[in-house]
Fold:
Amino acid sequence: MSSMEKSYNLRDRTLRFVDREDEMDFLYEEFSSPRAEMSCGHAVTPMSLTNWCRRLLEEGKSKFVCGQPNCNREWPYVEVRKMALLTPEEREYFESTMALNAARECFNSKTCPGCKFLVTRKDESNLSVRCQICTVKKGRPYEFCWQCLNKWRGQPNANHCDNDGCINQALKTLRTCPEIVFESIKNVRGCPSIRACPTCGSLLEHTSKYCKSIVCPRCKVKFCFVCLKIMTECTKTSGPYEPCSSRVAPRQTSIPVWHR
Ligand SMILES: [Zn+2]
Ligand SMILES: [Zn+2]
Ligand SMILES: [Zn+2]
Ligand SMILES: [Zn+2]
Ligand SMILES: [Zn+2]
Structure:
């Protein structure tokens, strides 16, 4: 980041200068640059615009909207880039963060069956997701099921809703997968061959018949497939080729959520 305060050149004829207060200067930093108008009609300086857009990116947004209440107009990135006089380093940060945030939004967004708008899920451990648009339109809480994409029926915080055919494939796999028989570890019975990683929830199949440890490719945490403890915990009381001191962990009935 440069410590120099960016400022508009009054001779730049592509800008629309105005003599008003800086309407994106939410921290009252009073930048000295002349003010220019954005496409939505609000006045900015390059510094206030940069700071506001940086804040949006830090909040996980991938689009730029005016910060004035009652405006909320979206500014195209080309406009932001020009009006904020983004430096090459800032451009790089803006562009890579926009792409990252867009990918994350896409992963955490699904189409609401009520209004067909994309809804972003905040709580990854809850299958019933509130749609704000439908809630306002109907005048009562509207939730849909993240799994079967129908209006939510039944108890909140369940593994599935009460609609026909709403099952969690992952949980079904955990419940029904065959058991693994370790050749080198005696007296280990009833260990399923597929587990959800206790750290991040990824489904993993154990193929080694000798060693009970496995490294999760997603979160890179090494854990014990038998007792589901972190490997360093398990090996405190038993060797890697011995039965665990705590018993075989039962089949999992919920998928752990990764708290990064
Ligand atoms: Zn505006
Ligand atoms: Zn909706
Ligand atoms: Zn459902
Ligand atoms: Zn993992
Ligand atoms: Zn263990």
Q: What stands out?
A: The helical segments are 46-58, 77-83, 88-107, 132-138, 169-176, 231-234. The pocket of zinc ion (ligand 3) is lined by residues 145, 147-148, 150, 160-161, 163, 166 (CB under 6 Å). DSSP finds six helices and 15 strands in the chain.
